[in-house]
Give the backbone structure.
Amino acid sequence: MKRSFLPAVLALALPGVAFGLEPADVFVLVNKKVPASRAVADHYCARRGVPAENVVALDLPEGEDISRKDYDVLLAGPLRAALEGKRDKAKVLLTVYGVPLRVGRSEPGAEDRDELAKLLPLVEFYQGRLKAPREEAAKPEAEALTNLLKSLEARRQHASHAETEASVDSELALLWWGRYDLRRWQLNPLYFQVPAKVRAEKPPLLMTARLDGPTPALAKRLVDDALAAERKGLQGKVYLDARGIKFEPAHDTGHGYGGYDESLREAARLLREDAKMAVTLDDTPALFAPGSCPDCALYCGWYSLGNYVDCCRFVPGAIAYHIASSEAVTLRDPKTKQWCKNLLEAGAAVTIGPVAEPYTVGFPKPAEFFGFLATGRHTLVECYWKTSLFASWMTVLVGDPLYNPYAKAPGLTDGQVRPSPKGGKFEAH
């Protein structure tokens, strides 16, 4: 996979992407087979003033998963047809309760199957060679075999279409892109560090968000809490749970563990010193203890994989996400201990999480996401897409896309939000 690196400082002169979103810009996707899906959509349209004709109802599977074939035939194709004459109007696509959450991997074609048939015997042969006893002088041969096996494994992963699954919402963002490689991810052209020239060369991206959760009532509550918070401005405290991992720019472009830990610390400084918010930063490996974060408006932390810790007592309209793998594998299973569903049940109005392994780079950087949010100039969905590096990948935004919690009391300007972490590099895959 080709990679290019641009110094983050080059992006500072680029103008922000401003959309000035209105309710008429939002189109809502409903599952015809789930009556509650339409009820959630109707609630949103009534509360936000979204035109009724902006609702698109499709016959979709009722569970949280959809196969790649059904995604193409039942979802993306019909949705593309329904919106074809409205491409300029449809800036945001809101999926709601009842719409599948995760799309499965694509199936290898004939050429890929032929490639796999040739690769598997080679892998087995060289694995056997590597395990064979050898003299000390033969160690260079072992190193060469190890490198060869890595190359063969990379080819096998490519031919088997590994990592072609994605969140439905992230895939739908590229509705207008035609054919593109489903393996891993596509660069999000709305990411604020993407050069204007690169952005102009890409087809339009459809910003996506989701109103979902374990029940239809909770999905509706996300809207009600957002509106309630907007009336007076989101008020409460900020809790950021770093791990004390040192950021070393010589070994980390800013997208590894050290880079994300540093971004949590930078978010703490930005929100405390510039936005004048009440911020608590824990920079130790231990997580916030249960019940230790009262009056919480903003939360971000890590790393308790698939094991929710009930640390926050949220104010209405709170925004919270936990940086860990697969925390949005389900939003509806009542027994799950994953973070997204449990954060919503605990009272958060917004969360972000992945439907499978996203790698750290799949998450918005905390200093960037919360920074743009605190300016009050951008809606929730704009902040998410300005700070998410990829589309056609794992992460999903759950919350009212038009939510703007700091519109009445902005704490920052766009110019104060810098690429994070300082010393990192913008990495376009």
